[in-house]
Design goal:
Elements lengths: L6 H18 L9 H8 L3 H7 L3 H22 L10 H13 L1 H5 L2 H4 L2 H14 L8 H24 L6 H22 L1
Helix pairs in contact: 1-2, 5-10, 8-9, 9-10
Length: about 190
């Protein structure tokens, strides 16, 4: 019997994830079925269900792995909470999204959920030990406000085939974030 420690189990688990990513290069999520994934991967449906309860569980698994890699990309670029909403921060994020655009093209709706943004913010916050805990709530709301709009802009960018270069999009998003911050400060 396959267990999570069994090399064949791990091979099949990776095969399923890799097959999903390949299918996303040519298909929208709604076009991918368990049957199509299994045919492409050369596995039985029962094998798929031994690894995942549904396609959405598979998406969540891929998302978790990409989130870890995304945070690593920020660390490598020396992007921390204090400069996450900078042009360089947006550039790193957009480079990452562009690299995995076939996955994110169908997944951005979930990314703009408040729960997801709060989770990502908390991960970024906890990595920057110098942050004042009393500023957490203000920072969280600002982050949700800015990133919710940024994600919708990136969603459009992906749907349009990433016509604008990453650097241009990073500049646009930075200008929007700065403008939003100025407007929020002007209200208070």
């Amino acid at each position: 019997m396959n267990t999570k420690k069994n090399s064949q189990y791990q091979f099949t688990h990776d095969l399923i994830k890799d097959t999903m990513v390949r299918l996303l290069e040519k298909n929208e999520l709604k076009e991918i079925t368990v049957k199509k994934l299994c045919l492409t991967a050369g596995i039985n449906r029962s094998t798929f269900y031994a690894h995942y309860e549904s396609l959405y569980d598979l998406w969540a698994d891929i998302d978790s792995l990409l989130r870890i890699e995304h945070i690593r990309a920020f660390d490598e670029a020396n992007i921390h909470f204090s400069n996450y909403l900078s042009e360089e921060g947006f550039r790193v994020a957009l480079d990452f999204v562009h690299r995995y655009r076939h996955f994110y093209r169908g997944y951005l709706e979930r990314l703009s959920s408040t729960e997801y943004l709060e989770q990502l913010f908390s991960e970024m916050w906890s990595r920057d030990q110098e942050q004042d805990e009393s500023a957490y709530i203000d920072g969280l709301y600002h982050y949700i406000f800015v990133m919710g709009g940024a994600i919708k802009a990136v969603e459009r960018w992906l749907k349009q085939g990433c016509r604008e270069p990453v650097d241009e999009m990073a500049k646009i998003l930075t200008q929007c974030a700065v403008s939003a911050g100025d407007n929020v400060q002007g209200i208070s």
